[in-house]
Amino acid sequence: MNQRQYTIESEWNNLGRKWNNIKEKKASKDVNTARIYGKFGIEIYAAAKQGEPDPEANQALKVVLERAKTYNVPKAIIDRAIEKAKGGSEENYDELRYEGFGPNGSMVIVDALTNNVNRTAQAVRAAFRKNGGNMGVTGSVAYMFDETAVIGFEGKTADEALEILMEADVDVRDILEEENAVIVYAEPDQFHSVQEALKNAGITEFTVAELTMLAQNDITLPEDAQAQFEKLIAALEELEDVQQVYHNVDLGE
């Protein structure tokens, strides 16, 4: 076990800002429950359709279900999506990733699930164009982001969480303590290991459980550009086929 990895003082830049961005995103979704539940229904169905409809045998499905719990997605929606997959529905969804730029060179990644690729591409392109942005080519933005497991919970201190994870021999990138919550950042393939170690230590609920794309460096926009940027993000997130939107802008408190 490399103890150097478990430093409360981050070796990453601005992790506090990154956590604020995640909170802002989650708060935005929390007030749009009907739309978000619908998106989760599609994501759960697609994950169950691509593999076994059992989360213990399908890691992608397990991740989606853990995320769904943090958004209080009703069991009926989850069960209906899984049963649809079990029933042999012929409806298929393609996973797509778009990369682009917003005002002042801000960077945006858009992940979508769609049963109509042309419709989705046109809608995403239009959202960028109408809100001061433009689409980029594949790889033009993603290299500035790191895929990361982010797991948050309450009821323990960062030091206690560090000890739990060390005893379980689980590697993480960093651990932060903020506003009575502990936030663990880890490699994507450690997502389940972190959760299992914490569950074994008595943590039963998570405030965040995401596989996300974190910008290596966040930027701050001037007020007018930030207002336009927020319109761009809102327009993208409102699109029916868009599941996740990631960016490198510090949205502040």
Automatic annotation (TrEMBL):
Subcellular location: Cytoplasm
GO molecular function: DNA binding
InterPro entries: Integrase-like_N (IPR017856), TACO1_YebC-like_2nd/3rd_dom (IPR048300), TACO1_YebC_N (IPR049083), Transcrip_reg_TACO1-like (IPR002876), Transcrip_reg_TACO1-like_dom3 (IPR026564), Transcrip_reg_TACO1_YeeN (IPR026562), YebC-like (IPR029072)
Domain named TACO1/YebC-like N-terminal: residues: 17-88
Boundaries of every TACO1/YebC-like second and third domain copy: 93-249
Pfam families: TACO1_YebC_N, Transcrip_reg
Residue runs in coiled coils: none
Main localization category: cytoplasm
Keywords tagged on the record: Cytoplasm, DNA-binding, Transcription, Transcription regulation
BP terms from Gene Ontology: regulation of DNA-templated transcription
Cellular component annotations (GO), alphabetically ordered: cytosol
Signal sequence bounds: none
Cross-referenced HAMAP family: Transcrip_reg_TACO1 (MF_00693), Transcrip_reg_TACO1_YeeN (MF_00918)
Family stated for the protein in its record: Belongs to the TACO1 family. YeeN subfamily.
Stated name of the protein: Probable transcriptional regulatory protein skT53_06660
Species of provenance: Effusibacillus dendaii
Gene: yeeI
